[in-house]
Amino acid sequence: MHPLPVDQLLAIDRQHVWHPYAAMPNPLPIFPVKSAQGVYIEMEDGRTLVDGMSSWWTTIHGYNHPRLNQAARDQIDCMSHVMFGGLTHQPAVQLAQKLVELTPQPLQQVFFCDSGSVSVEVAMKMAIQYWYNLGKPAKHRFLTVRGGYHGDTFDAMSVCDPVNGMHHLFNKVLRQQYFADIPQIPVWGVWDDHDIASFEQHLAENHANIAAAIFEPVVQGAGGMRFYSPDYVRRARELCNQYDVLLILDEIATGFGRTGRYFACEHAGISPDILCIGKAMSGGFISLAATLTTPHISQVFSQGEAGVFMHGPTFMANPLACAVSLANIDILESYDWQSKIQVIEAQLKAELAPCRESSNVKDVRVLGAIGVVELHESVNMNEIQPQVVEHGVWLRPFGKLLYTMPPYIIEPDELRRITQAMVALTKSDG
């Protein structure tokens, strides 16, 4: 491959490449990347940016990590892919074993997926077929909470926030689900059962039609970057048991240490019936996700009409992705990541506090390696994105949110560049 001149690259990009959440032709500024190393992104124009996004929550150990690169090289020399139907291989089996060890009991079965959205589709499909196999086909709808985000595919969209979410314009063609009120009690707030009253009411009135409840535990991600009480998750688990409804937890964004626990449901001390994971699992190296469930659920499938679970992605359990994911988890376990997250959290709390002095700011909140500044008004992406880059960092604001979830390997002076940029941006009219 011969690199194109930057002006030619941008011209072709604007004419032919459709970027996420963008129009064609794309009116938003695009910044060409040449390479990336550690927490730094090197741009084609020579500037170097500190990455405050971990490439949408994924690159927890930074870019170009030698151990991940070596794991990929070793696996490529063996095989980069082989179909998973009727075959298996070392990386998939060892990764499945590792995920079972890491996730809460009694999760024992691992279904590998291509992406986070697909893992949600698989979880919802799994819940529906589970009840169908038990002779309860009426249980095919889902209960979730407003303000959530679960992906861009169709069933995943159906449980995203129906009013203020990114997918509201599809509402008339999506399956209609049940939506409880957004949890209001903050992470360490005093619990009151009134906060989950809407969730309980939906279960009481509609449990005969509900296959599962699905939500993001403790942290709502792209739907609003809200942090809420683990007691909500604990009570939801109890209510699902009471009303004979499965519980699906979407930990695609929160898994692998982001909130200070390996999985966010650990803050509540509970386990779901089905768990969705992805993003940071492969360290941002290559797309991979998984849906985990329990023997109680999985054993029902051989008894049903189909006799199997009716799903099987072409690139399921891609050996290259599995091998890199194993190496990524090994890296995470090779150091005291919990202490590192605590240090990042403390620095984010201290250095983002001045944002509260700005009249543009509604709220500042931090949990683990997640720092959020909520503004009163939505940002103008045409204006704020170039300003972010001018500060020498990479952030991707959206809506009313300016936020960071840096790589775990970030050093204090590198993180300070991000927080100083965020403070400066909150004082801007952009």
TrEMBL record:
Binding site for substrate: W56, Y149, K279, G312, R396
Keyword terms of this UniProt record: Aminotransferase, Biotin biosynthesis, Cytoplasm, Pyridoxal phosphate, S-adenosyl-L-methionine, Transferase
Top EC class, one word: transferase
Gene3D superfamilies: Aspartate Aminotransferase, domain 1, Type I PLP-dependent aspartate aminotransferase-like (Major domain)
Stored InterPro entries: Aminotrans_3 (IPR005814), Aminotrans_3_PPA_site (IPR049704), BioA (IPR005815), PyrdxlP-dep_Trfase (IPR015424), PyrdxlP-dep_Trfase_major (IPR015421), PyrdxlP-dep_Trfase_small (IPR015422)
Pfam family, any one: Aminotran_3
E.C. no: 2.6.1.62
PTM annotation (N6-(pyridoxal phosphate)lysine): residues: K279
Listed pathway(s): Cofactor biosynthesis; biotin biosynthesis; 7,8-diaminononanoate from 8-amino-7-oxononanoate (SAM route): step 1/1
Subunit structure: Homodimer.
Record's protein name: Adenosylmethionine-8-amino-7-oxononanoate aminotransferase
Species: Leptothoe spongobia TAU-MAC 1115
Lineage of source species: Bacteria, Bacillati, Cyanobacteriota, Cyanophyceae, Nodosilineales
Gene: bioA
